[in-house]
Design brief:
With 638 residues, this protein is α+β, with helices and mostly antiparallel strands. The chain has three domains: 185 residues, no CATH class; 259 residues, no CATH class; 106 residues. It is built from 20 helices and ten strands. Strands 1, 2, 3, 4, 5, 6, 7, 8, 9 and 10 form a ten-stranded mixed beta sheet that branches. A hairpin with a 5-residue loop joins strand 6 and strand 7. The chain is elongated and about 90 Å long. The C terminus is likely disordered.
Length: 638
Amino acid sequence: MLKIALRSLRRRWMTQVGTFVAVALGVALMTVMGLGLAASAALPAGAETAGLNAMLGTAGGVASFVAAFVVASTFSYAVAARRRELGLLRLAGATPGQLRRLVMTEAAAVGLAGSAAGIALGAAGAPLTARWTVTQGLAPAGYAIGDQSWPLHTAFWTGLLVALSGAYAASRRAGRVGPLEALREAVTDERPMTPGRWAAGGGLLLCAVAFVGWRLGSDPGSLLKRKTYTWQPMLLISACGMLAPVLVRPAVRLLMWLPVRLTSYAGRLVRANAAAGIRRTAAVAAPVLVMVALTGSLLGAAWTLGEAKTVEARARTGADYVLTGGRLPDSAGIPGVPAGKVLAVADTRLTVLEEGFVKVPTEASAVDPAALAEVSRLPVVAGSVADLDDGGIIVTEEWWQHRVGDSVPLWRADGTAARLRIVAVMRTGTGDNGAYVTRRNAPGAEVSRIEVEAPAAAAAAVREAAARYGATARTTHEWVAATHPRTNRFTALGYVLVLGIALVYTAIALANTLLMATSDRSGDLRLLRLAGATRGQVLAVTTAESLLATAVGTLLGTAVTAVNLAGMRAALAVLGVDSPVVVPWLAMGAVAGACAALSALCTALPAARALRRGTGRTGPLWTTTCSPAAARSGTDPR
């Protein structure tokens, strides 16, 4: 089998190029991220280091997932396209076990070569990435790649494992190919779904739904965290990938309903070819599904959460104006504004003792109790804001102790210990509802903003007061738009990095699958020519088929996005935040358009080449009516 595998690789090297590049890029990226994480371990602890670790870890995790998905999809279609070849080996006496070893040997060879190339690329690119992070201000000046070797070993063996894991299911399918498959001419996929695929796809779908339901009932706030909404779409994407052969036919019928009625024959032909070659259609749709779903889910989750924070910030205050900047006083009297309508907010930090032994730092605001009760609109679910005094504190439901009347041990910002009584409890919301204490419990805290509830007639007086302190006066809507939310720099660059990775893999997988599919359909193209279709009509039909597969992937990716964002919207509703879902239609449309353009290009070019080589100058019958020797010599024996 080893000799056969090596010969097969040499003869079908074009079908393995995409897999090789995907493995190489995945290993290169894992190498860069691993070396970066190893170098960041030497940095002092802090928010900047934590953000850098989160960005590198997220990018590396998504890269591994997309690489595994692409490699598995590519191997699956490659085995399906080689059905007759594997059937011939079975006729020649090969056992199912030998066919499985043949596919796994090919995967091991591609994985070893791709991992080795990826290690070389990653080792060369890691120092460049480190310098870029320092230049962008994402890492301190001393951040540099060291001489650690464990990231290289980890990335190499992970790449090989990804290649073998992606080929494992395909190898089992290869072992089930019977000898009679060598005699089949039809390309119709009669059993695209196996029991194992049903179990895997259904299990992943059930896990995704069960996880959301469990979190909604126990901790809905966890669904709003970046770590959750980054990996959660992967479950649904994997489930759709497994169940794609089942979902393709209804999607094809839905998308082709109108074209079939507007065309005489082309629409029916495209629909029939796509439905008959389910594995081919699913293989082309899979990378598009990944890209559209990741773009919609990641950007949609981040934008929906940002909009929810904005809505929550607007609802939390009854002020008309907010003063920020300059040197604001502890309290300000503004002409034309009644006493108690001006709320000075000073930021401080408390350290809370949870579970009797865990110290947890938390942000808090120091305020005047009377002004807080008058100006604020805090989402209180128990107790009263008016009860706040020097011995009290207002907390949220996410605190370990959050029952009105409980005594909370904590340390103030200057290190002094205190025990404060809970006087009110707020909804957790999106997590921005910090604690509230009086100024006595915030020694050394400076006022960061002043909220003013004033009529429109007092606008001039408010602005004069702001100018007196060198501050800026904004309306509440202007202040919220300027400060809530601010996308974290690490998060923004992480999204760019993650989606860039997915786009590269999508382009590789899509181009590779289409090149394989088109080159394997030269017989179909000749049959279309024999049926009287012109060369332009054949190109139009084949291109329409690839565009249809891209549309199927876009439809499935949109469905995954809808399910993920629906889970986030349900979590917001449980947390009491009435905020709309923000769908990144423009970004998803741009991704789908890029995939469609690539699909058309990677289908039309090889199809045109196959038509030129198959029909020649004498017409479509030439390759079917003359002998191979006559075809090479250019003479007709008749």
